[in-house]
Specification:
- This protein is mostly helical and 215 residues long.
- It has one domain.
- The protein is built from eight helices and no strands.
Amino acid sequence: MKNFQLKGNVRSLFAVGHLALGYMVGKAFSRILNRRVNISLIFVLSLLPDVDLLMPYVRHRGPTHSLVVMVIISVLFLRFYGRAVIPYLLAAAQHSLIGDYLTGGVQLFWPINRGWYGLKAYQVSSMMNITIELVSFFVSMALLLKTRDFYELLSSHLMNLSLIVPIAAICVPLLLGFPVKVPIELIIPHVIYLTIFAISILKDVKEVVTTKQQK
């Protein structure tokens, strides 16, 4: 265990890495458990822990990244949905357990233990991290196409409107450089994810408008 000081010094995977790993983990466990998952929700949850960047007085990689908090919240849904919740829980948990654990530190067991855990194996801007994110992106895209989840994303479904969350997570660092500037090598993967999510939302909006006009 190490005492990491992360305030004002954000170390984390870029959106591409979290999205790709979240999708692959969630999809893998949906297959293992033989449960269908909503792909849009998997993508949203893979980034959700970083909501703390928008929360005043909440330390980054603190409470919202805690596995304890994630499990407690998941228990509420397990009662009604059973094992179907597990892929979603793991899609969110990988955010802390893989990317954030490797590139810095995270309060994995807050509030039971407020210590910071992590390897700090490499910097987020390092070529190692960029390579890992690129490989994860290409593997996730191949999986999206092979499983036809890509076409599910592009089909009309109200849950696809939740993709506004990853769209924001992609646009803010890409356009404003907050919390970290996206390296040039990862710009195209960010834009590809952004395009897919934007088309998905536009299709939903068009469906809603068309339905209202027909009534």
